[in-house]
Amino acid sequence: MFNIKNIVVPTDFSKLSFSAFEYAKELAESTNAIIHLVYVMEKTPPFLASRSLHLSDEEVIQLMEVESKKQLNEIVANLSEDTSNKIIEVFRKGIDYEEIVNYAIEINCELIIIATHGRSGIMHSLLGSVAEKVIRFAKSPVLVIKPQDDEP
Predict the structure, then answer these.
(1) pTM here?
(2) Going edge to edge, which strands form the sheet with 34-41?
(3) 3-class DSSP assignment, residue 32
(4) If DSSP states are collapsed to H, E and C, what string results for 54-87?
(5) CATH classification (class only), 6-145
(6) Does residue 26 contact residue 150 with C-beta atoms inside 8 Å?
(7) Taking the domains of the chain in order of start, what are their residue ranges?
(8) Containing H/E element for 123?
(9) Which one, 16, 24, 129, 139, has the greatest CB density within 10 A?
């Protein structure tokens, strides 16, 4: 059996991404591992946000960063109530899959648990897949959680 000490769980704050956390929580409890909940914010703000709020790109980025960090902190506080394992909140800015993979390497993580929307066809081609890129570039094993039939 592997000696799992660190589990990386990427999140985009969606309900689907927290299904991966449930798997990580179960595994962490049985191995006494630390869960690293990773959120990656894009470096550039959505075009409409800066135009509709009449703010500069820098102001929009700063607002988004403050709100994202606040949301991540609240989520970790809530999730910590459900587990005795340590949860570390990780905020990064950049390209999502690159930041996830780089962080996993930095902490020598033994496992990444990531959820995927399970899109195929044209939706997959248009949107790409963070999970697919993490699988391709990660140095550690990756457990992919697919949505249940009743999940969006």
Answers:
(1) 0.86
(2) 87-93, 34-41, 6-11, 111-115, 142-145
(3) coil
(4) CCCHHHHHHHHHHHHHHHHHHHHHHHHCCCCCCE
(5) alpha beta
(6) no
(7) 6-145
(8) helix 121-127
(9) 24
Cα 105 to the center of its chain, rounded Å: 15
Q: At 57, list the tokens.
A: 């790109």
122: Cα separation from own chain's centroid: 24
CA distance readout (Å), 113 to 35, 65, 90, 108, 121 = 10, 24, 15, 14, 24
Residues 6+ apart with CB under 8 A from 132: 116
Token reading at 113: 């648990």
Q: Which of 6-10, 17-21, 100-104, 134-138 is predicted least confidently?
A: 17-21
- pLDDT tens digits, residue range 77-126? 999 988 888 999 999 999 999 999 999 999 999 999 999 875 555 544 44
